[in-house]
Specification:
heterodimer, A: about 350 residues, mainly alpha, ABC transporter involved in vitamin B12 uptake, BtuC, two-stranded antiparallel sheet, about 0% strand
């Protein structure tokens, strides 16, 4: 831990606390209040950005639990999101209440994730990456061809979420729903990381042999990591389905898995704050590019036909630059900035 | 039956291209332990550069081909120097992600220059089919197959007898030991990226001659994984056989799925279903080195 000056702990419980100082708690409180108030003043485009960010945050933090904390690379996260989305959508279409459908989607994704996580007992590193890549492509195929459930290439129309008869039918209303579920997921992952399970995950990531010698049941904990991570991914998928109100198989392609991986790398592996930062960064990046291309379209009128290719190129470039120059991610940079200002006039 | 024989032959041709791309993949993996997700995009860049030279700049095909090979050497060197070398010694996931980022960049460059429409190569070989065992086979298929075979022979000899090839194998086996025997590791890394880039380019040009090219050619790079896993990640012979087997398998499975279950497009996933099965049963492939760990 990067202990602060004058901050010391007398018990393990105090050291593992989520908030180590009152100042942190106050700052977070103010931040949350500002976020909750923001939809009242922002126009609906910005609220929709916030909504997309919320969904991305859940996806990113769940992948970070698996990849950043437990060290199991997954290239199939997008497909697990898809499983959750389709199951939750079908459930609400068959009259299951929204929250139950969301959980159902989560459990379905967890089941699928655990099935594809089984090889993780024998496979490590790149072999696991390739196995999850296979999972992604096979699930994509299922989404596209199991037309009675997924609607195939025509897509599936979903109803707006309803809880106890209250319908979340515009951007502002749905923001509060997404925000509260995102906050719950973040809290859940933060707490999981502080428990016995979280420490077991970290020990597996750091060195699996030592972990096993220390009595960590590798298979059980790896499977638990896959299950927990896919559960949250499924919830994110279910929320996405009920937010966009339309599902198509192309939504959950390998590009989605890659962009979630990019989020956690850019944000910082194994860090909850990092997942949030990465999700914000990766959601805003294409929007900023769109905005830029619109603003220079007077000078370069053909820019809009290149925007798709440009977006992809910028994405790749950002990823490479982050890996080379900022491999610890935004979370680490944030920590450094805070440390710099803390000692401001005397920083060396 | 004839239909399946035709599928089998198509599979062999596609498989020979997979083998080439897999060869590039294995060369990189053997020497540097990097899993290259941009292999497919390297194929695509090679194919487009050759297309640009022959069709847009009217260079004769043979010269264009040689110039493309020269370009691919530079591409390989640049990629290794700029993107991969800073990451030596980093975790698996970082190296994987950097090659994924690279694949996006290469794809975007191709789309910016040549657009997303399908491009067709001029005909280099005559189109009248040659009859083999009662089946018509296009000459370009035979050329593709033969060229892949020749390249494999060349590389096998190179790795077995040449000084450089032996140095590369030594590096693959044990980097520290190789370095202490006076082998320049950096040179080996650069060379392996060059070789990978060149063989992928050859694959790309062949593919362009068969099907034409579009900007989604990079998906081919994903097909390489079943091939190399089947053969074992670090075996050249395994890559060759794995590529052929996967090529045949996906074509025949596609035909079977269409006939028996009326499923379209099974080609795309057949190889990956096989891949999962292999990983479950024999994770280190047919010819790969097993990593045995004991506490």
């Amino acid at each position: 831990m990067h202990g602060k000056c004058g901050l010391f702990f007398e018990s393990y419980r105090a050291e593992a606390a989520v908030f180590q100082s009152g100042f942190q708690r106050t700052c977070l409180g103010i931040f949350i209040v500002l976020l909750l108030a923001s939809p009242l003043v922002l126009d609906s485009y910005f609220v929709s950005m916030l909504n997309l960010i919320c969904i991305a945050v859940i996806g990113a933090v769940s992948l970070n639990l698996l990849t950043g904390v437990c060290g199991q690379i997954s290239l199939g996260h997008g497909a697990f999101l898809g499983v959750g989305a389709y199951v939750a959508a079908q459930a609400t279409l068959h009259g299951v209440p929204f929250l139950a459908a969301l959980l159902l989607g989560g459990f379905a994704a967890a089941a699928v994730g655990m099935v594809f996580g089984v090889p993780s007992l024998r496979l490590k590193g790149i072999y696991l990456a390739i196995a999850t890549l296979a999972a992604q492509l096979i699930l994509e195929y299922v989404f596209l061809h199991w037309e009675s459930v997924t609607g195939g290439s025509r897509g599936l129309i979903v109803d707006a979420p309803q809880i106890l008869g209250y319908s979340f039918d515009n951007e502002r209303k749905i923001f509060y729903l997404l925000f509260s579920i995102t906050a719950l997921s973040l809290l859940m992952v933060t707490n999981v990381m502080r428990t016995r399970h979280g420490r077991a995950f970290v020990s597996i990531r750091d060195f699996y042999l030592s972990a096993e010698i220390a009595g960590v049941n590798l298979f059980g904990y790896k499977l638990a990591a896959f299950g927990l991570s896919s559960f949250l991914a499924g919830v994110a998928g279910g929320l996405w389905a009920h937010y966009t109100l339309f599902l198509s198989a192309e939504q959950f392609n390998i590009g989605l898995s890659i962009s979630y991986l990019a989020m956690i790398i850019i944000g910082g592996l194994g860090s909850v704050v990092g997942s949030v930062m990465g999700a914000v960064f990766m959601t805003l990046l294409p929007e900023v590019l769109n905005g830029l291309s619109n603003s220079i379209s007077d000078v370069l009128p053909n820019i809009s036909q290149y925007i798709v290719a440009l977006r992809e190129g910028v994405f790749g470039l950002v990823l490479i630059l982050f890996l080379i120059f900022e491999p610890e991610g935004l979370a680490n940079r944030w920590r450094l900035i805070k440390a710099y200002w803390k000692l401001y006039p005397f920083a060396h | 039956m004839e239909y399946y024989l035709q599928l089998f032959i198509n599979g062999l041709v596609v498989g020979s291209i997979y083998s080439l791309v897999a060869l590039g993949f294995v060369v990189i993996y053997k020497a540097t332990k990097v899993v290259n997700f941009a292999q497919g995009e390297m194929v695509m860049v090679g194919a487009y550069v050759c297309f640009g030279l022959t069709v847009q700049l009217h260079v004769p095909f043979v010269w264009a081909f040689l110039m493309t090979l020269g370009f691919s050497v530079i591409l390989g060197l640049a990629v290794e120097r700029l993107a991969l070398r800073p990451l030596i010694g980093e975790a698996h996931i970082c190296v994987i992600m950097v090659t994924i980022g690279l694949s996006s960049v290469l794809k975007s460059i191709v789309q910016l220059i040549w657009g997303t429409q399908i491009k067709v190569y001029p005909e280099v070989l005559p189109s009248t089919p040659i009859i083999i065992a009662g089946l018509p086979v296009a000459p370009v298929y035979i050329a593709a197959f033969a060229l892949s075979g020749v390249l494999f022979a060349v590389f096998t000899v190179f790795f077995k007898y040449s000084r450089m090839g032996i140095a590369m194998r030594a590096t693959a086996h044990d980097q520290q030991a190789a370095q202490s025997m006076g082998i320049g590791i950096r040179g080996i890394f650069a060379l392996s990226w060059c070789i990978a880039s060149v063989v992928s380019t050859v694959g790309g040009v062949i593919l362009g001659n068969i099907n034409g090219i579009n900007s989604h050619l990079g998906v081919l790079g994903l097909k390489v994984f079943p091939a190399v896993i089947m053969g074992g990640l670090d075996s050249l012979l395994g890559a060759a056989l794995g590529g052929l087997i996967i090529g045949v398998l996906e074509n025949v499975c596609d035909g079977l799925a269409k006939d028996l279950f009326d499923l379209g497009g099974f080609r795309e996933v057949a190889a990956f279903v096989v891949l999962v099965a292999i990983l479950m049963i024999k994770p280190y492939g047919l010819f790969g080195t097993e990593e045995i760990e004991r506490v």
